[in-house]
């Protein structure tokens, strides 16, 4: 090709595009301010004379107090009810599994004390056990002056029962005079004892 015959050709306008001016919106309602990575260019321009990038990022704009974390009052609302419930449960557990019956005192009496028991008579011996009213079981035995004693006996007490009457029937036969002693021995929940004396007289 001959260089003298070469000439530059003008490119048509369809080979390149000029920057299109940014379209102006017909109407703008307020301003958009985004926080974090999505900060807009408009917000960055305002940051030069307004809030800093750190303030925009963290949302702490001048004159606007930082939001405080909301404090939930719901746990305190049920605190009193929880305390009452725990107190009731402790009281019920104490009544159910707490200390059992406690014996206050024991006395033993015989029917018609001071009078002699006649021939072939039966003495009605009564032991009165006073307690604190708690539920539980008494363990006891009777001992007689003739050298005999009962086996181990039990008396169950209900809640609120503050007295228990324990009876011994002692029968005599034949002629003679005998000074008799009946003793009540409490072995549990704590040791106690009491005795009564009477006379058998058959002449």
- The parts where pLDDT drops under 50 for at least 5 residues are 6-16, 25-35
Query: Class of one domain, according to the CATH hierarchy?
Result: Mainly Beta
The strand count comes to 7
Q: What order do the SSEs take from the amino end to the carboxyl end, as H and E?
A: HHHHEEEEEEE
Organism: Streptomyces zaomyceticus
Keywords: Membrane, Transmembrane, Transmembrane helix
Protein name: Ig-like domain-containing protein
Features:
single chain; alpha+beta; 7 strands; 203 residues; Immunoglobulin-like
Can you tell me about this structure?
With 203 residues, the chain is α+β, with helices and mostly antiparallel strands. Among the domains are: 28-65, no CATH class; 103-202, Sandwich (Immunoglobulin-like). Helices cover 18% and strands 32% of the residues. It is rod-shaped, with a radius of gyration of 53 Å. It has four helices and seven strands, in the order ααααβββββββ. Mean pLDDT is 75; it is low at 6-16 and 25-35. Strands 4-3-6-7 form a four-stranded antiparallel β-sheet, with no helix packed on it. A three-stranded antiparallel β-sheet has the order 1-2-5, with no helix packed on it. InterPro entries: Ig-like_dom (IPR007110). The chain crosses the membrane at residues 76-94. Residues 1-23 are annotated as: Disordered.
